[in-house]
Amino acid sequence: MPALKLVGVEARIRYSTSGRILWALNSFPRYSYRMLSIPVAGQFLRYAEDQFSLAWALPAQIRRRVLMRLYPESYGWNEELRWRDRCPDIKIYRGRTSMEKQLSQSSLLICGYNTTTFLQTLAANFPTIVYWNPRYWELRLDAQPFYTLLEEAGIFHTSHESAASKIKEIHENPLRWWNSLAVQEARKQFCRRFARTSRDWIKEWKSELLSHHSYNDP
């Protein structure tokens, strides 16, 4: 069924030809209280190092175009200080400005985690590079073929070297790469499974819900 959270996302997120590179990161509690496919507790430090490695693999002129969007909630990791110390030429943002507004002032998203953010940009057909260490972001077996499609198209990366190489290749004109046949086909197949949208979403949901309605109810 069409994902209700993604309704209208194509109209809300716009591409800026001369825009910056928006890099979105996540954060996690310092002490584990549930088990998820995310960096748990102290593994966050390894996650941060993976992202630092990608930043330092990029040329300085690309880093200066980056706006680093930190997760709005702080869990005591001092991410802003860590980034200013390790990569002082990257602009840092932590606040409540919407992701959609910042994306509409950007030409490329780098997404460093496996949550809703990159599903939104793929559904909106916005140029996206996804990078995370699969050691900390485990995938279900039935999902892996779809991520392989993204990997083969250059969207999804599991090493900072691969992600940096693709960013250096496309950063001047991300849309030219993004609109290629291979990238668009991979994106569409992935979205059909995990981020489906539809202009007729109300009709589709109505039809589906009515199909489960029991007319024998008192």
Structure explained in plain terms:
It is a single chain. By secondary structure, this protein is α/β, with parallel strands linked by helices. The protein has a single domain, classed as Rossmann fold (3-Layer(aba) Sandwich). Helix content is 43%, strand content 11%. The protein contains eleven helices and six strands. A six-stranded parallel beta sheet has the order 3-2-1-4-5-6, with helices on both faces. Helix 7 links the parallel strand 5 and strand 6. The protein is globular and about 60 Å long. The mean pLDDT is 92.
Q: What's a concise summary of this model?
A:
With about 220 residues, this protein is α/β, with parallel strands linked by helices. The chain contains eleven helices and six strands.
